[in-house]
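pipeline stage [seq->struct] | target=Adenine DNA glycosylase | organism=Paucihalobacter ruber | residues=347
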Amino acid sequence: MNFTGIITDWYTKNKRDLPWRKTNKPYNIWLSEIILQQTQIKQGLPYYEVFVKKFPTVKHLALAKEEEVLKLWQGLGYYSRARNMHKTAKFVWNDLNGIFPLDYKSLLTLKGVGEYTASAIASICFNEPKAVVDGNVYRVLSRFFGIDTPINSTEGLKTFKLLAQSLINNDHPGIYNQALMEFGALQCKPQNPDCSVCPLNSACAALKNNQVKELPVKLKKTKIQIRHFNYLVFISSNRQSVFEKRTGNGIWQNLYQFPLIESLHVLNEKDITKHEVFATHVQNNAFEISLYNEKPIIHKLTHRHLHTHFWIIETNQLSKNAVSLEDILKYPTPQLISNFLDSFNLK
């Protein structure tokens, strides 16, 4: 069976009409790949369209302010992607005269560009035969060839990378890479794929051995940690609040939030009012505090679940760092804060 030919033929008949498939410009392909990292197409597509409209070239993105980029990115998560994307745009514009590297090896020098993204850009834009290996590719290859080596193990990463490279179409690597990923997304789906109409079903090892549900194999994730987040939503008599920029190297670096008290256990009202974060912003003893949500809002990250409460504190006067309530919506925020702002009436 001609695996590569069948996949490519299927793609020409079934591929989705997506804007980044109508161009081979490195900027557009790079932008789409960064946005779609750990993001489904249906979620990432609107963001791609907004970014292309706002920043049609790498120059426009390079000259933008980081806060502007983060604000447009809001809701996609993994904000380091946006920060790295902005840094790369500035590097390409300022150091490379606005021209993206022209091969796989050079593309790997760009911040935020790993083997998968470099392979995608190199194959689609420059016809370099470098195989992409993502979740869809792992699934198709493990099922078709009956490979039960864990895809997130050292051995598995090496095995699937070598196999993917051996199957690539050297004449049209970009089309083949997109075809294999699209086949995994639409035909060889994670749950309940329709194997009866699959063009590979006559030679699929997983189908033959009744292992479609078992493959691919993935090692268990690390234990999820639970953290308790308490955001202090101060509201002064002159309609001001406190909104802070996160520093450090965390996932929400340079995004804005209300003052935060983080703990390993649930805090009550007394714990909150005695905390130094609370005392830093309340200038006198005249305040009223109430819990906005009795039931914690659970925000799931890769290795942590954040059990979140928002405390509303009304007071006469705040510290000098206060900002007007009307200005808060202008700042880039984590989705957790954005969702709260959508539900809480600031007016």
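stage status: PASS
auto-comment: The domain at 225-343 is CATH 3.90.79.10 (Nucleoside Triphosphate Pyrophosphohydrolase). The chain has 16 helices and nine strands.
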